Amino acid sequence: MDSLKERILKEGKALDETVLKVDSFLNHGVDPKLMYDMGTHFKKYFEKHGITKIFTIESSGIAPAVMTAMQMDLSMVTLKKQKSKILNGGVYQTTVHSFTKGLDYELTLSKDYISKIDKVLIIDDFLANGEAALGAIRLVEEAGATVGGVGIVIEKSFQPGRKMLDEKGYDVYSLARISKLQKGSIEFY
Ligand code: 5GP
Questions:
Q1: Which residues contact 60 (CB under 8 A, 6 or more apart)?
Q2: Distance from residue 13's CA to the centre of ligand 1 (Å)
Q3: Are 139 and 57 in contact (CB under 8 A)?
Q4: pLDDT at 92 (0 to 100)
């Protein structure tokens, strides 16, 4: 997605060799038009995949996911990062290690928002080690539903997540694929 790559080059800041800061349009400020265009690209790629529902992980996945859901005329579910206070069998939960915070959190999905017939598209802002995407996949599969694909806004292809998801057979589509990050420089495939 050329407009996304241009924004990353213009406003993104490589903090080091692994972390990219894109607060101005994705992680803090949100550019709705750019998010809408992301939805168009995700729809184009995934529209023939028989997707029934879109899942995302709070909070920066919500904007691109809702734009995709709107354009695909599907409902969207946000996976919560906090532990449910009502552990009465009403939720699926899995532990995920956060790449940016270096901490574990509980990814939570209410059983009300998934059923065995669902084919879920998972959308997230970044793909690094693949922990967040894999956590979302575990929840979908624990519910007996199917993962129809994984849509990523910015993939850092030099980190292990992409290869790991490919090897497990998931269909991953990323709008921008970064091959190398260095303080002050960003390279794409
Ligand atoms: P993973 O679970 O694939 O290791 O990391 C993905 C999650 O970590 C994303 O949901 C995102 O919130 C965060 N993340 C990973 N790498 C970056 C990065 O370079 N910049 C920002 N802003 N977030 C990142």
A1: 26, 27, 124, 125, 126
A2: 14
A3: no
A4: 95
Ligand 1 centroid – CA 100 distance (Å): 6
Helices (H), the chain: 2-11, 32-46, 62-72, 131-142, 161-167
The pLDDT averaged over each successive group of 10 residues in the chain (189 residues) is 97 95 97 98 98 97 98 98 72 93 94 97 98 98 98 98 98 98 92
Residues in CB range of 117: below 8 A, 6 or more apart? 52, 145
Can you give the pLDDT at residue 86?
63
Residues touching ligand 1 (Cβ under 6 Å) are: 19-21, 27, 57, 60, 99-100, 124-133, 161
Helix axes 32-46, 2-11, angle to 10 degrees: 140
What number does the ligand 1 atom closest to the CA of 57 have? 10
Question: What is the whole-number distance in angstroms between the Cα of residue 88 and the centre of ligand 1?
Answer: 31
In DSSP terms, 154 is beta-bridged to 126, 176
**CA–CA distance, 75 with 49 (Å, rounded to integer):** 16
